[in-house]
């Protein structure tokens, strides 16, 4: 239930604070006085679209805040659990702020929330029923929702939704596989060609990584072997190697040994050097023998294989050799699937038929409850609406078989006739604005106890009626208010007189501007307001007597 409402710096409202009550709360006031502004502020609080032009004074923000008594609202508690909102069983406070720049912030119990969450909470707290919402009566989805609500189909629909989802998934899988098989059949020759080339490549898992490692190893080996070979050539293997040059030097010095100083020992030293060179060469030979003489050839083969694989990777426009192996596996699976395509499709078709059968069985159960609820609803709606000035009303609520859909296998349509010997037709083709308003009020009266909402707001739904019909509409609102809180914005004294609490909205001029005020009327204030609504003159004694009579009659 909506307990308190605070609005500040919003449109014509400087600041107002209302305390609402259980039962039927009436709001009246002259046209343009600010009733719609209040309703707009409440809609904003429940997640509606904000407009910076609504900020009254640009130097400060607008604030709309309301507190709700939520004890026993299980739907709201479950929603809060799924959205991580702290649950306070006694009260919930919603607040919306609008800055002059148009930026908004939303809070629930002083915790910032998104607008989606705010809307989700609002949908479980208040039903705002305006003249615009009357048009919902002609929408098939709204009609179906009413029948399902009266039939108590919530759990059945949840079960059906799961089965229907499985059916749609099975159909989608069948469609996808059929399309894939058809495409594979068209490309079978090309896929065979690709697979053959990949099989010829004979690429092994991790082969590319092993080849890269081998390339590094062989490159090091070939570089080392080449260095040893160059050193050996320089020392002993070349045409003009160091060993031959030293021996030539020894021979040359031996020819003049008689002329060399004895203490120089040049020949001996050269011969020792030659021995050392020979020993170094032997050491190099031993070291070189550890490196394969075929390293260069092996490296060339590794480079060739890497190049071969890289070319195929590039040709197939994949990232690496691993994806080539995956491609080969896919081609093998696709070609193997073609061999068993008829069996695969037949199995998927069987699964889809089975899923459809289960969904249709669930839908059939729902349809039965819908037909029973529709018959009861047509009778109750007729009996409820006829006293509202529609004595020739005929209600025909049809539930006809339709294709399987997310909502079941039914097409629901409300048909009405308002005159004698008239064939019932869809509501959009038959009803006037006033008739739709009365029908919608009757619908809300019937489903009020099923709505699981603590509050409902009627915004001038009694437009276009008067006299006895207005009185009956007021009584209907009062009856609804016995189950939940009702807030009714009205221009009709017959409706206003039924309220347990009566608020008046009016404008007041200050020296610089016009502001909207709201006042909870006393008993005498209610008489003044009703007299004003009846005659345009609050002091008119006849009107005041009539007002007292209306209040007494209503109580």
Structural account:
This protein has 555 residues and is of the alpha/beta class. Helices cover 55% and strands 18% of the residues. The protein is built from 18 helices and 15 strands. The strands form three sheets. A six-stranded antiparallel sheet has the order 2-1-4-5-6-7. A six-stranded mixed sheet has the order 8-12-13-3-14-15. A hairpin with a 4-residue loop joins strand 14 and strand 15. The radius of gyration is 46 Å and the shape is elongated. The model has no long low-confidence stretch (mean pLDDT 86).
Tally of helical runs: 18
What best-fitting shape do the alpha-carbon axes yield?
A: elongated
Low-pLDDT sequence parts: none
What is the radius of gyration?
46 Å
Straight-line distance between termini: 23 Å
Number of strands: 15
Largest sheet: 6 strands, antiparallel
Say what oligomer this is: single chain
> What's the average pLDDT?
86
Beta-strand content estimate = 15-25%
Secondary structure class reads alpha/beta
Query: How much helical structure, as a percent, in the residues?
Result: 40-55%
| Spatial sequence of strands, sheet with the most strands | 2-1-4-5-6-7
Please render the helix and strand layout as text:
Elements: E1 2-10, E2 13-19, E3 24-28, H1 35-45, E4 62-69, H2 74-82, E5 91-98, E6 104-108, E7 111-113, H3 115-123, E8 126-130, H4 140-151, H5 154-186, H6 188-201, H7 207-237, H8 242-254, H9 266-289, H10 295-315, H11 321-339, H12 341-385, E9 394-405, E10 408-417, E11 425-426, H13 427-430, H14 433-447, E12 455-459, H15 467-480, E13 485-489, H16 493-496, E14 501-509, E15 514-520, H17 523-535, H18 541-554
Helix pairs in contact: 4-12, 5-12, 6-11, 7-9, 7-10, 8-9, 12-14, 14-15, 17-18
